[in-house]
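## Example record

The block below lists the input lines for one assembly entry, exactly as stored, with component labels intact.
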Amino acid sequence: MSTSSQPQFRYTQTPSKVLHLRNLPWECAEEELVELCKPFGKIVNTKCNVGANRNQAFVEFADLNQAISMVSYYASSSEPAQIRGKTVYIQYSNRHEIVNNKSPGDTPGNVLLVTIEGVEPNDVTIETIHLVFSAFGFVHKIATFEKAAGFQALIQFTDAETASSARNALDGRSIPRYLLPDHVTSCYLRISYSAHTDLNIKFQSHRSRDYTNPYLPVNPTAMEGLLQPVVGPDGKKQEPQSNVLLASIENMQYAVTVDVLHKVFSAFGTVQKIAIFEKNGGTQALIQYPDVTTAAVAKESLEGHCIYDGGYCKLHLSYSRHTDLNVKAYSDKSRDYTISDPSLLATQVPGLPAAPNAWQNPQGVPVHHGTDYSASAAIQGQPPAGQVPAWDPNFQARPPYGSVTGQTYQSLTAPTYVNAARPAGSSPLSQPGASSMPMQQQQQPQPPWANVRQGGAAVLGRPPYYSR
DNA sequence: AGCACA
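Predicted structure tokens for the full assembly:
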């Protein structure tokens, strides 16, 4: 902070395109400023409400001579410059351009930056935010994050007009109390415009949503945040035991299929469900046991071990926060072994339960496959049987391609490959007789909200966000 | 009445 850094005399004006106007009336509008100045030239920028009293302003002309003409005119005029009858004092500014006339947050755009004050991130769900802002138009995307400023959300509308209507209505307002947890006393929204025009949402999760693409992959790890945060009795975070294990597969040189995982994890007890997914470029899987004890044994036994010799497909296990996976009964990435007796599924059982809870498993009970899959399996080159990757220390490293299951669920395998091989729309499941399960062709992961509604299958097919 | 923003 050196005084010599300001060598120019403060009140000695060298000409500038920028004029400094002071003694302006309270909250002088930009229009009033322009009215006063535009007879002298083209105004390219202004800044109003400057100074502690907000009664100063800057006006920048396109050309220096225009500014000079204005200053000269009023220097020799008998009538001072006036706005609303107040004399306005005009000088050259000591700067030569107006910078940051508008802060970026005041430049309208279709994306709002919302800071939610007075709440913890867990107090306001993305659903609540969506609800509040949807009142002004279709909300395309939402991304939430925690920064120094607090809990913030980027909310993408179709256009700046919609965004500004939301901003005008909600800025400084509070989210309705009934949408908030009881312990939240106040929750004020500070809204500005983001410079973004299109948010890049990679996953549906508890922190981000893309309502234009309901079938965007769900990030299962992120979705765990939907559950209660886990805090031990001592107040510290802990990893609670669970009947569901989260397996990260490292150095996955060979394909790890549902069948392989089933074989490996079945060594410790009944495996109920398996789901495989990609996360951060790696492969992870969720393996569900009936009880925590079995999961704990499997975790202790398998942690750090490799599915194949040579350090291939090394397992890292932790407890998932899930307790009951909602997975497609048959897909190349998931399996629900609890759906019913596999031996029944292999054969056509016309009256097999239409399953009161069939909507929870949109892939449904594949009673319609009939003879179809045997042919498709052949097309896929799947041998009827093959080497089973066993949990055997002597097991030779070998890609499990073509590996087929043991007798127990061999029959389950074929429909999986059938579904994977068949283009959407050609599934026999879409035949009229299958109308009770309308969404069976949806191969994408279910949006997380799909399974919380009754009749979720129908909701999945036509999310409410398409209703506009 | 006396020079902004972030």
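The first strand of chain A starts at residue 18 and ends at 22. Residues 10-11, 18, 20, 22-23, 47, 49-51, 53, 55-58, 87, 89, 91, 93-95, 98-101, 103 of chain A lie near DNA strand B (CB under 10 Å from a C1').
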